[in-house]
Amino acid sequence: MSDNHANAVGGNGGAGDNGPGAAASGASASGSSEKAYEFVADDVTSNKSGTVRRMLIKEYRKIGRGAFGTVVQAYITPNKEDWYGPFAIKKVPAQTEYKSRELEILRATNHPNIVRLEYFFTHLSPTDRKVYQHLAMECLPETLQIEINRYAHNKLELALKHVKLYTYQIARGMLYLHAFGICHRDIKPSNILVDPATGVLKICDFGSAKKLEHNEPSISYICSRFYRAPELILGCTQYTTQVDIWGLGCVIGEMLIGKAVFQGQEPLLQLREIAKILGPPDKKFIFFSNASYDGPLYSKPLFSGTPQARFEKYFGRAGPDGIDLLMKVLVYEPQQRLSPRKIMAHPFFDDLRNEQYFFPREHTQPVHLPDLFDFSDFELRILGDYAAKVSPQAD
């Protein structure tokens, strides 16, 4: 549905205004063997300081393409000496609802598990003479999709500690977003950036995101099909941020089995794939999702035995706690799906609270976990009583 923000983004994290990576970035910028496309932008605005200045942009390579635009890797300089970056610059046509919404959300968010907007500017494309909004965001080495595919291709399994580490950080990012009423609406592995060497994760690509208002309808044809919540499949237009929680459940399952869990070949068949694991959807759920739904109901069980047995069959390596979490997230009724804070407090993440290290891929020595519990005052307010359950217990 939306862009794969940084499909195999190379380079280090984005250096901000004269940030620590500026010198190294300068060497990369001037020494690249790829032919760079250069242009000057007059209105480069720093998201951090709000200052607007004229800058030279050097684009090196395309790293993503989607429904709303393209993403390139680029460096920025005010004087041809101090290079900032590398950045992932997303270009979307100006004067569109998607553009303004994404920029608005990225400007307002500031969280360790949300991709950071560094600069933004407009530029007239020389190829089609249209004005494009450019969003310069921090870079991470790759997407979670690339990481999952790498393991699956080599017939290996992503370590359970990594599954826990990534899942927890997605839930923490959602805790923050959902507190503002912001629904990402396209949670999937290709919209999640990771640095496998450090374990850091950031949710990206807010091209489909929207601040949901109570009793205000939103389009149901949203979210990539394999990760689309059942109420959206049925055509619900009064949904909540819990559609993101369904997407998270799909991402957890994919990390565990190395492929998308529910792979319907067309939108309505998606519900059948879900019913194969969860069992038939309840008629009341279908009615309250969309009273005028007249598609297939899949009301007869498509398997023998219990849903619990199906979850154990598919996701057994997650262990009892992992299966319990998945069964409380992949639930038809959105209001019954766990909230982000309840997910973060789940025993599945006790390993992260009790042990401070993990082994990155191809590392023989353990690496310290990224900061997982450095909560802001805002996060602590959202967590409420759950803050004590989420945080490591003091000895």
From TrEMBL:
Q: Which residues cross the membrane?
A: none
Q: Which GO terms describe its biological process?
A: cell differentiation; signal transduction
SUPFAM superfamilies annotated for this entry?
Protein kinase-like (PK-like) (SSF56112)
Region (Disordered), start-end ranges: 1-28
| Cleavable signal peptide | none
What is a single molecular function from GO for this protein? ATP binding
Keyword NAD present in the record's keywords: the answer is no
| GO CC annotations, alphabetized | cytoplasm; nucleus
Cite the Pfam families for this sequence: Pkinase (PF00069)
The positions annotated for binding ATP are 91
Domain Protein kinase, residue spans? 57-349
Q: Which keywords describe this protein according to UniProt?
A: ATP-binding, Kinase, Nucleotide-binding, Serine/threonine-protein kinase, Transferase
User: Biased composition, Gly residues: where in the chain?
Assistant: 10-19
Q: Which SMART domains match?
A: S_TKc
CDD domains tied to this protein: STKc_GSK3 (cd14137)
Similarity section: Belongs to the protein kinase superfamily. CMGC Ser/Thr protein kinase family. CDC2/CDKX subfamily.
Q: What protein name applies here?
A: Serine/threonine/tyrosine protein kinase
